[in-house]
Structure formats: C-alpha cells, structure tokens
Specification:
The chain is α/β, with parallel strands linked by helices. It is about 30% helix and about 30% strand. The longest helix is centred in the last third of the chain and has 12 residues, at about 250-260.
C-alpha cells in the first residue's frame, strides 16, 4: 500500500488559480506545482502526490483543452469536485500607478475576461502562458508601465502591488475542478447528492447516441453535462463525457448504465468516479446559473 504524502499536485506556478483551489479545498495539504497536466497526473500515479487538482471547465471560457483526453488514460479516479471563483487582480511593481500603465500581461483567457478594463485603461494586451507566470515576470521586470492579471495569491507570493481587484468582466467567473486520486472513494448509497462521471463511445450506427442516452431519460437520471470529443485521429466516431446525478448502485442508474452499455462496444463505458455533489451546484441553481 502506497504511503500517504499529504501532497496535492496542480498544474502551473505558485499563485495560479489551481493553487488557490488546492488551498481552499484541501487546506491541510502541501501543494506541488507541476509544469504540465501530464506531470500533475503522473505525480499522483507514481505516488509522489496523493491528489491532483484538475481544472475541467470555466463558466466563461468553457472546457479546458486536452483534459478530457487525459483523464481516462490517467488511470486515476475522481473523488471530489471544487468550484473556484476566479478573482482577477491588476498587479504591478510597487512604484507603479494605474495612470502610468501601458501594457498588461496574462493568460489569453484572463485577458479575454478583462476586456472592459483593458479598453478603459487603453492597455496593450500581451499573452503569457499562465497568469501566475505573468505575475512572476512582472516582479522580475520592475517596470512601472507593465502590469499583470493574476490572482490575489500571486500578489502576495511575488510581492506585487494590487492596483485594482476583481477586474473580470463577469461576476460569475468560476472554474470547476475535479479532485483525483489513485484509488476511488465511492460514497455510500444514501440521501446525499452525488455525481457520477462517465466516458463512453457508441457504435457507429444511426441514432446510436440517442438510444444510448435514452436509458437515463426513462429512468429519471439527470445529466448535468454531456460533451463529445474526437479520439485516435478518427473522424468516424466520437468519445462522450457525461456527468450524471445519481449513484451507480441505485436501481435507476443501474438500469440507465445497462441500456448505455447495450449501444456501446464492449468495454467502451468507463466510470471515472462517483463523488459528493459540491454545494456550489445548488447555490448556482438557485441563482439561475
């Protein structure tokens, strides 16, 4: 049995929003920055870390590229989810002023989410591989004309001045993360709300997807997410990713999964994890999101 490391891995530099998610969801664990998503998942697979904080989708920018390809191949299991509010902050050197700024650097998504600010201040946007990296770069430059868009945590880590907080255009800007481990932890079948994440591929015949998903409808299982993506360079058939509200041991989910498997090739249905539904889901639903 692998010994616990009490480490949670994330992709990015210290101060990234994934770093903030780790601190919020697992405050008792040490964090481990990783250069890539592959490195992050491998850290857990190899036993270097216990958990991985994996971003899968953003309420403004949509799904995170490449993640859906990596999750099924990782061999890891989803044991939880976390919703992290993205609070973008305008950061600069200690002697900088808003009036003196000429340029702002950040990840392409962060720049796109702060168009109003960039237009208001007439700044030149410069794309950087990640938000925390942009903050680290600004700290090294000491140029009062150059700012970064990053997290409040990045300001603390890299010793930058906060010129403006919460500068994102959309107040609901939130990223959903999956918490992954080497071993699955399936909650008991009781009254608590759970989510089951499934990946599958259907037979390449007319109406296969319609029929495969019919079992969820007839058995009253709600799907909160359905996405398709191509695998193996083929344009003939897609792989599908589904989040379903329900426990795989419940009668309704068992019947839905039986019908799904009937319309899929053998071994093409894989459950990536069953985990408690985060309370944020209910809050977002009440707020109409």
């Amino acid at each position: 049995m692998t010994q616990s490391t009490n480490i949670i891995a994330f992709q990015g530099l210290p101060g990234a929003f994934s770093h903030m998610a780790c601190r919020a969801a697992r405050p008792d664990m040490e964090v481990m920055p990783c250069a890539s998503f592959e490195d992050m998942l491998e850290a857990v697979s190899s036993g270097t870390a216990d958990l991985a904080m994996v971003p899968v989708e953003n309420s403004v920018a949509g799904r995170v590229a490449d993640i859906h390809h990596l999750l099924p191949e990782s061999g890891l299991h989803i044991i939880g989810e976390h919703f992290q509010r993205v609070e973008l902050t305008l950061l600069a050197a200690k002697d900088a002023t808003i009036e003196g700024l000429r340029q702002v650097r950040s990840h392409a998504m962060a720049l796109a989410q702060c168009r109003k600010l960039i237009r208001e201040l007439k700044l030149k946007p410069v794309v950087h591989p990640d938000t925390a990296g942009a903050a680290a770069e600004i700290a090294e430059l000491h140029d009062p004309e150059v700012a970064a868009l990053a997290s409040p945590l990045a300001a603390d880590i890299y010793g930058l001045k906060v010129l403006r907080a919460n500068v994102e255009d959309a107040a609901h800007n939130t990223t959903r993360f999956l918490i992954m481990a080497r071993q699955g932890i399936v909650p008991p079948l009781d009254d608590q709300r759970v989510v089951t994440t499934i990946v599958f591929a259907v037979r390449s015949v007319p109406a296969a997807l319609y029929k495969a998903l019919g079992g969820f409808a007839t058995n009253g299982v709600n799907l909160t997410k359905l996405e398709s993506y191509m695998v193996g360079g083929s344009f003939e058939a897609a792989q599908f990713y589904v989040d379903a509200e329900g426990h795989p041991e419940s009668q309704s989910m068992q019947h839905a999964l039986e019908e799904l498997k009937f319309f899929c090739p053998k071994g093409a249905v894989k459950i990536l994890g069953t985990y408690p539904a985060n309370p944020y889901r209910q809050i977002a639903k009440q707020n109409g999101r």
